[in-house]
Amino acid sequence: MGITVRKTRIYVDRSSQQWIVEDQEGNFWILPNGDDPWNERQPFLLTAECELEPVPSHYKYLLRLPDTA
Q1: How far apart are the first and last CA of the chain?
Q2: Is the pTM higher than 0.85?
Q3: Would you give the DSSP letter of residue 8?
Q4: Would you say residue 1 lies in a domain?
């Protein structure tokens, strides 16, 4: 039995035009525009209307996500 390490995933929700992050625990968050989006994140509820499109991981730097995110 091994340990599974889950990485943070970044998406854009095409329906709302917002950045969405799935954290290591599987929770989804809306990242607002601003200087510190991770600390100002809001919970995001997945619905049938969501159109999440995966974004390459190098956007983590552009969105100023912490290394622990």
Answers
A1: 25
A2: no
A3: P
A4: no
Q: Which domain holds residue 30?
A: 9-62
Q: Is residue 4 part of a domain?
A: no
Residue 49, SS3? coil
State residue 41 phi and psi, 5-degree precision: -65, 155
pLDDT tens digits along 4-53 = 555 789 999 998 889 999 998 899 999 998 888 989 999 999 888 889 99
Domain presence at residue 29: yes
Residues 6+ away with beta carbon under 8 Å from 31: 18, 19, 20, 21, 37, 38, 40, 41, 63
Amino acid letter, residue 6 = R
Distance separating alpha carbons of residues 5 and 44, to the nearest angstrom: 22
Query: Is position 42 within any domain?
Result: yes
